[in-house]
Amino acid sequence: MRAIRLALPLVLFASAACAQAGFQSCLSGLRADAAAKGVSGATFDRAMAGVEPDMKVIEAMNNQPEFKTPIWDYLGTLVDDEKVAEGRNMLRQYASVFAAAEQRFGVDRHTIAAVWGVESDFGKARGKWPLVQSLATGACLAPRRNAFFKGELIATLQIIQRGDVRPDRLFGSWAGAFGHTQFIPSTYLRLAVDGDGDGKRDLVDSIPDALHSTANFMAKAGWVTGASWGYEVRVPDGYSGPSGRNPKHPVSTWAARGIVKFDGSPLNGAGNAGLLMPAGRNGPAFLVFKNYDAAYSYNGADSYALAISLLSDRLRGKPGVQGQWPTDDLPLSREQRRELQRLLISRGYNVGEPDGAVGSLTRTAIKEIEGKLGMPQTGRPGEKVLRALKGGRV
Ligand code: CA
């Protein structure tokens, strides 16, 4: 449940004082709206004490990346050897919790673990924005979509009032996704469950609650117990038939179009499937079934659903993508990204900590390197830039 995608114009305020005054009057209105949803004045006042508008939330909303991340980069970061190794550790460490969630909701442990790994890197990347402050800012000052933020703010207050999560532990993305599973508050109210039996639903400090809640989400999204999300296929040269997650067709329809499994064997699987070609007709292709849609519903993007599906396969011991992505500049693993950052630091660039997370500082440095190499300046961390740095060419 990542940040929703918003394309919003910059909002200009006459002055900060004006914004502050508007914010306070907006909060008064929210207090009444929250009361109508059962949030007591005392809960509201305690949660709002000292909350000020955070204009960085509005900036984050407006900050559209200038360069669209290619699918192979996206998957390269989220489904790498490190993530697989850590996922296997987690499956061992929390084996009884995974078994209980699997039993209770019929969703297999590898899929639950994959969601955990992609959403929050197994709890390590849960977001640092104070939830109440970010959502209040969005509810009062976002130029559009205020209703979304207002609804999520009131849902957050309801969570606080129930005593499920400690208010001082409520941090997340600027758009409100929080905890191990990165549910937004309204999703939390609908789908979070108690996994450790203490009567509370705490997706921040209870791993059993988080894993059971993810399983519940997938079950409610139509998960078919025991079925596969899909698998990689080969499409005949010159294929010009339909593709995409939808519309779905019986496997026999795809077989009749000459599509086979990646190893050349005939297609199998029950129910209808879509043919996914996320990098176009010259890249890897996948046949995707109903359980792929369950993963898709977690975040509404094929790149995301594919990351969950492929990571779950790697955790099962299956291979990752076997076809070739249509690029001559392959993505870097996180370890390679750290190496790239260390090399940039050694050249005098400020990229922050070499943590493998490529933010604006690293991108700016990469752009300069790309310029020196005569490459288009995209800021993308790829093999070509890393090779040039390692070879001392820049
Ligand atoms: Ca609990």
From TrEMBL:
It comes from the Bacteria. InterPro entries: Lysozyme-like_dom_sf (IPR023346), MltB-like (IPR043426), MltB_2 (IPR011970), Peptidoglycan-bd-like (IPR002477), PGBD-like_sf (IPR036365), PGBDSf (IPR036366), SLT_2 (IPR031304). GO terms for molecular function: peptidoglycan lytic transglycosylase activity. One of its GO terms (biological process) is peptidoglycan catabolic process. It holds the Pfam family PG_binding_1. Residues 23-313 form the Transglycosylase SLT domain. Keywords: Signal. Residues 1-21 form the signal peptide. The keyword Signal applies. Residues 334-389 form the Peptidoglycan binding-like domain. This is Lytic murein transglycosylase.
